Amino acid sequence: MNNKYKSIFTPWKIGNLKIKNRVVLCPMGGTSIFGWMEKNHFDKQAADLLLEIAKNEVGLVIPGIAPVKDVMFGHWLHKSKKKFSQLKEYMTEFHKTGAKMFIQLTAGFGRSFAIPENMKMLAKNKFLGTLAKPIMNMSYHSASPSELPSRWDETIKCRAITKKEIDKIIYSFGQSAKLCKEAGIDGIEVHAVHEGYLLDQFTTEYTNKRTDEYGGSFENRYRFPVEIVKEIKKQCGKDFPVSVRYSVVSKTKGFDEGALPGEDFVEAGRDMKESEKAAKYLQDAGYDMLNCDNGTYDAWYWAHPPAYMPTNCNLEDVEHIKKFVDIPVVCAGRMTPDVADKSIENKGIDAMGVGRQFLVDPAWVTKLKNGKEEDIQPCICCHNGCFNMAHYKGVANLQDFDDTMHMCRCAINPEMMNDGKFKIIPAKKIKKVAVIGGGVGGMETARIATMRGHKVTIYEKTDKLGGVFLPASVLDFKEYDRMLLKWYVNQVKKLKIEVKFNTEIKDLSSLDADEIVVATGSTPRILRFEGSDKAIDALDYLKGVEVGERVVIIGGGLTGCEIAYDLHKNGKTPIIVEIKNDLIAVKGVCLANSSYLRDYFKTNKVDVHLESSVVKFSNGVVHILGRNGEESKVKADSIIMSVGYTPAPVFQKSKNIHLVGDASHVGNLRTVVWRAWEVAEKI
Ligand SMILES: Cc1cc2nc3c(=O)[nH]c(=O)nc-3n(C[C@H](O)[C@H](O)[C@H](O)COP(=O)(O)OP(=O)(O)OC[C@H]3O[C@@H](n4cnc5c(N)ncnc54)[C@H](O)[C@@H]3O)c2cc1C
Ligand SMILES: Cc1cc2nc3c(=O)[nH]c(=O)nc-3n(C[C@H](O)[C@H](O)[C@H](O)COP(=O)(O)O)c2cc1C
Ligand code: SF4
After folding, report:
1. Could you say which residues of the chain have pLDDT below 70?
2. Cα separation, 372 vs 367, whole angstroms
C-alpha cells in the first residue's frame, strides 16, 4: 500500500455505520441506479459501474439522484416496487465488496430544471404544456418556492409549488427511504440543500418569497429539509443514517450571477454566518452527515468546477463549517488526494468526495492505493461527455437529445456509460497499421488498435507526440490537460508502440501497412481584412509569440475566451470581438464552464464587443463594425485571431484509409477520442 495516503485509507463512521475508508463516490445523475425516465427501470448499466467502483476500494458509494417523482411520466418512486426487489438482489452482491451505499433521493429541481431548447415551448405555451403533461409535466418539475425565472431561459417563469405538493414529496421521501432500507441500502442522502436545487431554493432568501410557513424566517426557509429528515427517521428509525447534500455558501450575487473565488461581493443566498447556524440546525433536526460543496446554479462553477477553478476549491469553506457540527463532513469539488489526506489527518474534513474522476477511470482508487498514480488517466474537468448542458443568451439548454438521455459519459473514456458501444475486443486478424500523425487522435487510435493485438506504427512529422494539444494545454490552468497528454505519451511507451519521429508522410507508397489511419489534424481559419496580415494566430500565440499590452482577440468562442482570460490574469488588457450575440455561444460547452468565463469578464470589466466584427487594423487602432453598421475604434498593440479550424487530412478516406480526429471533423477531445475508438475497433 502507498503510505502517502494513510489517512484516506482509515475507517470512519456515519452515525453507527462504519465505512472502510474515506473515499466517497459522489452522486452523478446518469449513475442513478433507478432510471428516472422509465417506470420500473432498474439501471443495469449504472449498477454494473457502481459495483466496479465498489470493488475498487471505495468506502461509500452514492449513485446519482433518484427523484421521488419521475421526470418522465411522473411515477412516484415508492410506488415502483419492482425497482426495489431488483435493488435487494443487487445489494447482496454489492455488500460483498465491503463498500456501503446510500441512495440520494431528490425533491426536485425548481427553477434549475434544465429546459431543453427544443422543448421550451412546453414551458412557454400553456396549451402545449398541458398536452405534454402526462409525459413531461414541465410546470411540476420546474415548480419553485415562489414564482422565479428559469435558470435556462429567464423569460420562462416557474410557478410556486403548492403546500399539497410539498406534503406529497415529504411523504414519498419517507416511503422511498423505507423501501431502500428494506432492500439493504445503508443510508439515504437528501438532495439537496445544495447547488440551487428545489430544497436549496427554499432555504435562500433570494429564491424564496413565500408568505406561508415555508417562507420568511430562518426556521420557515429550512422547514422543508427538516420535515423530510424527520419523516425518513419516522419511517426508518432514528439509527438509519441520513446525509444531506449541502452547499456551505451560495457564492451567488443574484439571478444568473455567480461570485468568483476571492471576490468581494454581497451574498444573495446563504452566507457563511447563516451556514454556521444552518449546519447545526440540520444536524439537530436529524441529519447524520453533511456532503458538502458550494454554489448554486447561478454560481454553478463551484459545484461543477471547470479547470479555471482551483483544485480543492470548496475545502476551506467545508473545513470551516465542520467546526460548527459534530457529524461527519465530506468535501467535493476537484479534490486532490494529497490535500484531502492532509485535511483528514488534521480533522479538517472526514472524507473526500469525488465525482468525475470515476468516470474517466473507475479503478483510480486501487491505483492510488497501490502506488500506480502514473497510470491514472486524469479528468480534465471539461464536462464534454458527462454534463454538456450549454446555455447562452436567448438559447435554453442546447444539447443533443442523446446526451440528455445519457449523462455521465466521458469525453476521454468512451467505454463509460455507453451501452457497450465501445469495447476493446481482440482482433480476429492481426494487421499492420500505419497511423499518420501523433496527436491525441493518432495516439488513441494506436493505443486501442495495439490493445486489440494489431502491430501499429505512428508516423509523426515533428519530434514530439501531442500535436495541437501541446500548445492547447500550455496555459496555466490547463495543468490537467498537460497531465493527460503525459498519460497518453506514457501509454504509448508502455504498449511499446513504434513511433517514427521527424517523418512526414507525403506518399502512401512509403508505408508498409494493411490499414492507414490519417490523423493529421487541422489548419487555422483566417479572416481577411485590411491589416489582417499583422494578426497573430491563436496557436502561434500559445506557442510563444509575444503580444503587447492591449490585445484584441477576434473570436469569443472557447479558445478565444480562454486566451483572453489568461491575458487578463497576466495583467494585460484583452478586448474580445465576437460576431454572435454571446460569448461561447456553442453547443456542448457546459454552462458551468462557460458561465465562469462570462462572469469573469463581467466582474473584471473586460471590453467585449458582441455582434461585431473587425474590419481594419492600422496604426495601432482596430476598427470594429457593430450590429447596426456603427463603427467603433479601439487602441491595440496586437490582434490574436481565433476563429476556428478546418480539417487537414493528407489523404482522403477510402477502403483501408480512415480519417480520425480533427482531420476528419474539427472538434475537441470528445469527438477525437470517440472517433479514434470507432476506427480502432473496426480495423
Ligand atoms: C487552442 C486550442 C485549445 C484547445 N483546447 C481544448 C480543450 O481544452 N479541450 C478539448 O477537448 N479540446 C481542445 N482543443 C481541441 C483539441 O486539442 C483537438 O481537437 C485535438 O487535439 C486534435 O487532435 P488530432 O490528433 O486530431 O490532431 P493534431 O493534434 O492536430 O495532430 C495532428 C498531428 O499530425 C502531425 N502531422 C500532420 N501532417 C503529417 C504528415 N503528413 N505526416 C506525419 N505527421 C503529420 C502533426 O505534426 C500533429 O502532431 C483545443 C484546440 C485548440 C486549437
Ligand atoms: C454528470 C454529473 C452529474 C451530477 N449529478 C449530481 C447529482 O445527481 N446529485 C448531486 O448531489 N451532485 C451531482 N453532481 C455533482 C457531483 O456529485 C460532484 O459534487 C461534482 O462533480 C464535483 O466533484 P468532482 O470535481 O470530483 O467531479 C453531478 C456531477 C456531474 C459531473
Ligand atoms: S467528460 Fe470531461 S469532465 Fe466529464 S469525466 Fe470525462 S474528462 Fe472529466
Report:
1. 36-40
2. 5
